[in-house]
Amino acid sequence: MAGGLAAVILAAGKSTRMVTDLPKVLHEVCGRPMLAYVLEACRKVGVEKILVVIGYRKDDVIAAFAGQDDIIWIEQTEQHGTGHAVMMCEQELRKGGWQDTLVLCGDGPLISDKVLGTVVEKHRTENASATLATSVLEDPAGYGRIVRDAYGNLQGIVEQSDCTPEQKNIKEINPSYYCFHTHHLLDALHNVRPNNVKNEYYLTDALHIMIARGLKAVAITAVASEDVISVNSRQQLALVSKVMQDRIQENLMSHGVTIVDPSNTWIDARAQIGQDTTVYPFTYIHGNVKIGRQCSVGPFAYLREGTVLADNVVVGVFTEIKKAVFGAGTRVRHLSYVGDTTTGLNVNIGAGSLIANFDGKQIQPTEIGDNAYIGNGAILVAPLQVPPGAQVDPGSVVYGKTHETNRRGE
Ligand code: UD1
Ligand code: CA
What we know:
Layout: E1 5-11, E2 28-29, E3 32-33, H1 34-44, E4 49-54, H2 58-64, E5 71-75, H3 82-87, H4 90-96, E6 100-105, H5 113-125, E7 130-136, E8 145-148, E9 154-158, H6 165-168, E10 172-173, E11 177-181, H7 182-189, H8 203-212, E12 217-221, H9 234-254, E13 258-259, E14 265-267, E15 272-273, E16 278-279, E17 283-285, E18 290-291, E19 296-297, E20 301-303, E21 308-309, E22 314-317, E23 319-322, E24 325-326, E25 331-334, E26 337-339, E27 341-343, E28 348-349, E29 354-356, E30 366-368, E31 373-374, E32 379-381, E33 384-386, E34 391-392, E35 397-399
Helix pairs in contact: 1-5, 7-8
Calcium ion binds at residues 107, 230, 232.
């Protein structure tokens, strides 16, 4: 289809510097594998098919993204460089007939769809063969340097290991955000040779070849320095996670969520939080968690996968909530564990109450009806249904098998 857009994401490397058995792109950043962010950015700018180049433990990578039909998995059995990795996609790219192809790295989850959109737009308005976004860094060490002529025209990219001493001082670098004319790229890649220090086929050399052939190559300085960091080590994983966490919180705050102490709060990328909810310090929200409006969460709350809080819910200090669905006005103010539990409206779960949802073999559900009142220190043993309006005395152990309240000592 003329005019179509595909993407190639490079993700075959084993990543020695991470010291890991897990494929690098499956390491999580704020709760999601880093590759998920790159895929999402591609989709947001209208990419039709995403070719992901994988190698090391490829089946695990494929399994992690099962059911995402716009992905074509491409195997690169031996890693001979970024240019070689793109060449593995040649057949699919030619067959697909997409006019342009983005080339991105799977280890750069901070990629922004806004910058990517700018690159694609520039590429098309300039009618370019290659367009890349660059960034200017105070410390450019480790990155490919952008070489321009006296007029500012792009001449090429030189890898750090191949730089002359003067080139090492160049602060404009290549974050690996490219858009290429598909056929011009593939044709150039055929002529790339591994004549560099690492003996690899460099994608960046294809750019030199395109420029030498008189094709138009454009570089726009568009990437914020903090967005450049890619993950090559655990230290960078932590750094990238911090930047991502700031973005997540920034977005929530701009939608009316109060986060009292952002640097002491951790919120998963998948979490949703409603307007006028306040999140107090030392709160950890992990997984697909939905929180309604005007809720109060924390301090020291731990909300886990599958938790859904309606409006006006209070989850207070030292509480762990797992896969629980709370009706509006429900309160769990202090020191509780509530798992696999559904509550109606205005349920009160007193301090130190626990849901015993696991009998050693199976996890069982608990339902608590509207306006029920669970006294301090009660233990509700699942499976259990607490009727609406029920009062459970402090310190009771309530067994569900008989579906009635058995007070301790009776
Ligand atoms: C690359 C760029 C460099 C840029 C930097 C930005 C080249 C030659 N250099 O360098 O200009 O500044 O990214 O982060 O492109 N991969 C494969 N198969 C391979 C080799 C690599 O899939 O055979 C994947 C890796 O898993 C990784 C990505 O490609 O996700 C980038 O490879 P990496 O070796 O990290 O490139 P850099 O040396 O960082
Ligand atoms: Ca890298």
